[in-house]
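Final report, Chapter 2: Outcomes

The project's central promise was a pipeline that accepts a single protein chain and returns its three-dimensional structure in a standardized token representation, suitable for archiving and comparison. That pipeline is now operational. To close this chapter, we reproduce one record exactly as it appears in the project archive, with the input sequence first and the structure output second.
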Amino acid sequence: MGLKESLNRRDFRRLMVGQTVSSLGDWMGTLALMYFVLELSGSTTAVGGVLVLRLLPSALGAPVAARVVTRWRRRSVMLTSDLIRMGMAVALPVLPWLWWVYFWAFAIEVVGLCFLPARDASIPYLIEDDDEKKHGRKHDTGTLEVANGITMATSYGMIPVGAGLFGLMLWASNNAGWEGHWRYVVVFWLNALTYLVSYFAIRSIPDLGPAPGERWAAEQEQKQQGSFLDALRLRVVRGVLPGVAVVALGLGALFSLGVVFVKDVLDASPVGFGVLVALFGVGAVTGLIIVRNGRWPLMTQIRTATALQGATIATMGAVASITWSFIGAILFGGAATAALVGGITYMQESLEGYRRNLALTAFHAVLRFGLALAALLAGAASDLLERWDVSPLGMVPPRLVLALSGLVVIAGTFLIRAPGARPGRRPKPT
């Protein structure tokens, strides 16, 4: 089943429409949050605190999220999360106090960490047709990978659209003479409305699973024991999470050093950086096209894509050529997408019921925590080398840190392992 067939599933299409609108609001809100914090504090360090807000919910909120998604049905988790986030987004810009803004931004991230695993756990159920549900037959892996790719596209494909719409709204508010924090209130309240759109999209879906074959009723007592540590005890999770962590490391390093690398190392203009970001998107789409047929065993796909991502980052740092960086952006986007989609699909195929919810909570927690932590460490390492005025191997700090990050990603691929003796395309459900 391809892209068209996936979107022909009515309930899946409704979920994706809601997620596209909600993601657009999230990216507008993220940019507004950075500008708002800068205006309140006048400090770039305080703006860096916004990145920490992406890290802390994963570290502190993951245990709470794990218990929520294993005790409530997915539909209830998602509907409640959207309503709560809507209220929080309305409250966030009301008072121009830094601690107030940080508190609500942090709270929104924690609730989002409950929403995402419930959403991802529902994808396999939504793409099954009635006959498959009735007879308990499984969809093929390629079908699930396409659906996961569409879901990922609704999240990250809205970055440039959200940035453009935020800039347009900021321009309009300036022309209207709005000053102070009220310029951002409209953006955050619009973000709140996008959560409401997502809420009604999900509400129009009568059921988000689990499917009859997931033995939901038999697992009710086990759900009471669900926790984040329980997720780490699952062999499937322990096998895949190292891959998620090193992919996050690569993404975080490139995210942190990308602007400096393009501007100071490649001596390229902002237009060049825009082209680099666009080529990353081209690579992501290319990666989805390559893996959509599901011809590789998923663990092989995850290992190969992760290794390719690491090699690409290392080479970008070592070569520091604008031509190779453009090529590398395509390879990087394709490899990162293939690895992450493969990881989500492997967990969905391997686990059922509350274990699937639990595993996907760990997936998103590690991805977010790893990305934010890697971005902080990569930026700090580059700043320290600049301060010490050292250039090992004749490489300026951004190049060196980027190259070393790639080597760490490659080394991390050896930690990725199948839970059984032999990895397969579709492991036996646990």
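Archive annotation: The radius of gyration is 21 Å.
This record, like all others produced under the grant, will remain available to the consortium after the project formally closes.
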